[in-house]
Specification:
heterodimer; A: 117 residues; mainly beta; 7-stranded mixed β-sheet; globular; B: 110 residues; 0% helix
């Protein structure tokens, strides 16, 4: 079974430029998360989707960050314009949450490492 | 919101010895405490978790303990092996929202 797929793995951009990250979750997983991981720190939640609905975006800096999950499958996270402090690894995770089965386990992708110069 | 603190930040152990990582949390409403292992260039992977209605859980060489009164939980790895070298993260919260600790870099010396 394929895991969570993210692209690109690495991205280097100049500040003020836009950037987008793509995530394909595990097939059948209805919950999708975007996390940001700064160097030497644990992941921090940016946004959580239940199917196509963003149910928790309280930590998403909405002035420059946006996300979408069309058709409740793939998701895109966008930053525009990027700032120096946005340099981090952006992790996508998915989980299967239902009335029948809810383990709480997050399945992470390998992440997209962003460097803003 | 929940605040999780993790200690130590680095841990070096001799192969075959035990490793212990400790975490504290702030929100008494938190009921789910997973531990994730992250290898270089990879995403975190769940290794064990515990819920607030359980005090201890073990899976082969890995065990986790939870003290709800003191709001702390610990990861114990026995008979460490070179493949245990990685960054370990504790987390606390509920099934929908987790706060992660800053991580512990574990190095197992051969």
């Amino acid at each position: 079974e394929a895991g969570v797929v993210q692209s690109p793995r690495y991205k280097i951009i100049e500040k003020k430029q836009p950037v987008a990250f793509w995530c394909n979750p595990i097939s059948g997983h209805n919950t999708l998360y975007w996390y940001r991981q700064n160097l030497g720190q644990g992941p921090e939640l940016l946004i959580r989707y239940e199917n196509e609905e963003a149910v928790d975006d309280s930590q998403l800096p909405k002035d420059r960050f946006s996300a979408e999950r069309l058709k409740g499958v793939d998701s895109t996270l966008k930053i525009q314009p990027a700032e120096l402090g946005d340099s981090a690894v952006y992790l996508c995770a998915s989980s299967l949450n239902s009335l029948i089965s809810f383990t709480g386990e997050l399945f992470f992708g390998e992440g997209s490492r962003l460097t803003v110069l | 919101g929940e605040n999780v603190e993790q200690h130590p930040s680095t841990l070096s152990v001799q192969e075959g010895d035990s490793a212990v990582i400790k975490c504290t949390y702030s929100d008494s409403a938190s009921n789910y405490f997973p531990w994730y292992k992250q290898e270089l260039g990879k995403g975190p992977q769940l290794i064990i978790d515990i819920r607030s209605n359980v005090g201890e859980k073990k899976d082969q060489r890995i065990a986790v303990t939870l003290n709800k009164t003191a709001k702390h939980f610990s990861l114990h790895i026995t008979e460490t092996q070179p493949e245990d070298s990685a960054v370990y993260f504790c987390a606390g919260g509920n099934d929908y929202k987790l706060s992660f600790g800053a991580g512990t870099t574990v190095t197992v010396r051969a």
